[in-house]
Amino acid sequence: MSWLQTLKDYAEQHPIVVLRFGSDEWESLSNSRRGVGEFTVALPHALVSGVKAPAPCLLLGKDGEAEQVLFGLVSSRSPITTLDSRIKVTRSVVVAPSSVAGLSALICDAPHAKNFSSRVKDEQAVSLLSPKLSSYLIKRLATISSNNGSLRAVAEKLSVPKRFKGNTAMQEDAVQTALAAFGLGSSDQATSVELAEGRSTALGRVAIMEDSVVEHDARSVPGYSLIQSDVTGRALFKKGEDQLEVFTANRRELEHCFGVDLIYVNLTKQNVVMLQYKMLEPSSKSDDQTDWVYRPDGQLDAEIARMNAFAAAHPPGPKEYRLNPQVFYMKFVKRDASIGDGGIITPLDHFEKVRADPSFKGPKKGLRLSFKSLSGRYLRQTPFLDLVRCGYIGAHAQTTADLQVLIEAILDGNKAVVAAVQKKVGD
Question: Which domains does the chain have, with CATH numbers?
């Protein structure tokens, strides 16, 4: 498990922080907006002076007489007053054993056991484990299979890509785009997360509710039998009367795929839209300014043929209105640009006009695609998501039956898929 080694190595540089709470504090945290899964707390500077945020943490609390142990992440530490620091804890999930005594019994190596006992016996509000003990404790927690989802959620959060450098970053952006289309942000919590063992996915980095992440090898998604073996993760979000099911799928390892596509199906508005990510490469100009160029690869024509065939078979229904019935959109992002900077979004039919226009020709058979070259004729992320949300763009989608066909075609092209299905709760 590569994520486990990554987490162990990280804990040796940023040791585990043990935060202990009294019954009243724990009850207050449990009843807060995000519960004990995500919260902030003010602590004296002296207590947290050794904390290197972000750092893994153990939360020790009591629900009545019952002890609880959670594993999470101290994501930040910052001064807020002359005397106190603000600690933010995220991604905290219940782990086993559920008591200090149980943790002590789990640490079977004598030197580590003595070390652990000495650091938690005084019941201080904050304790810092040694680097070696931190790594060892994570190793021992991972021997309990039910803990792996919780541990992996923290490990994945520590490796969130910040810039567009490849498919991992594109998948991250696609998941966040799907959440934004549903009206959620990156900190909104999923009601459940399922991660396929040994398969990388951005869904390991979404916010989770307490005791809601599971790692398993089933990789099954009800209703999507054709792609069971390709699913790498699945997450469920709820908002009011609607729910959003997001899953990721790819046949090859993510870094070896030819790209990433996002498919968003809104069954409440009966529309389906697909966003295909394309990377823009820098091309220096003579005046030392940077031009941005997209170089179509050999897969593009085959992809466009598949997209046009699917769109032709799924026109809007007779009582539906669309500003544009186009299913397929392209999102062009600059290599090494920060994720969240947006990008240029164009419908497929607009892209084909640009591709045929000699004024867009760039070096080495590339296409110059920039805010300047398009002269304002493009979509930014926010208006694009508004159109998706209200059902003004996309083809007819009454059920998810045709989604399987589209996903299968994408996977056959050795691409990665992020699929999101919005529907009423209980449908």
Answer: 2-156 (2.30.130.30), 167-424 (no CATH)
